[in-house]
Specification:
By secondary structure, the chain is mainly beta. It is 0% helix and 55% strand. A hairpin with a 5-residue loop joins strand 7 and strand 8.
Length: 182
């Protein structure tokens, strides 16, 4: 596995997520570690990489990652957000399409108490300057809003080396990002 994430679930079991290139796998265990289910999400065309898993208010999971599945230049990754039910069934999946072959370097996600998803994605090599995308997705996955922030400085080659978004209240989030500039 290229990347793995482990979280404790509300029933004191665990959810283990990992990505191995073409697929993201999610495994749910009960309190003693016995596996309840394992699911795979992805396809044979393109790659998906896992970055974060959070428990949704309904007990399901919000998964954040990135994919090059829809990229014309297969090396350009775009943010990916999925809602998975408590039983491991995919409820919805959103890929945030980006113009000009921008390449996403990192993704994080926070979930409000009402189930609204707040996503954060870093694009260090956007064509004219590095950018951060803030994505808001309704709990049912139907409404998507994307806001773009141009990062400080005029350098087009700054890289986010760490990013985190957290829910502060039902309507706001806070985020931090550490960058380095070439």
């Amino acid at each position: 596995m290229y990347r793995s994430v482990l979280i404790e679930h509300y029933d004191t079991g665990f959810v283990l997520g990992g990505s191995s290139g073409q697929y993201i796998s999610l495994s749910k265990t009960e309190i003693n570690g016995h596996m309840l289910w394992r699911k795979y999400f992805g396809s044979n065309s393109g790659s998906v990489l896992l970055y974060a898993i959070y428990t949704a208010p309904d007990g399901g999971f919000i998964v954040a990652g990135k994919t090059n599945r829809f990229s014309e230049l297969m090396q350009c990754f775009e943010p990916l957000y999925m809602k998975v039910s408590v039983c491991g069934e995919l409820e919805w999946c959103k890929v945030i399409r980006t113009p000009n072959h921008a390449n996403c370097s990192g993704v994080d996600v926070a979930v409000t108490p009402t189930g609204i998803i707040k996503g954060l994605a870093s694009f260090p090599y956007y064509p004219d300057a590095s950018r951060t995308l803030f994505t808001t997705i309704s709990a049912d996955g139907l409404d998507v809003r994307v806001d773009t922030m141009r990062n400080a400085g005029e350098q087009a080659f700054s890289a986010a080396i760490g990013l985190k978004i957290m829910t502060v209240s039902d309507s706001s989030v806070t985020f931090c990002m550490q960058s380095m500039h070439n």
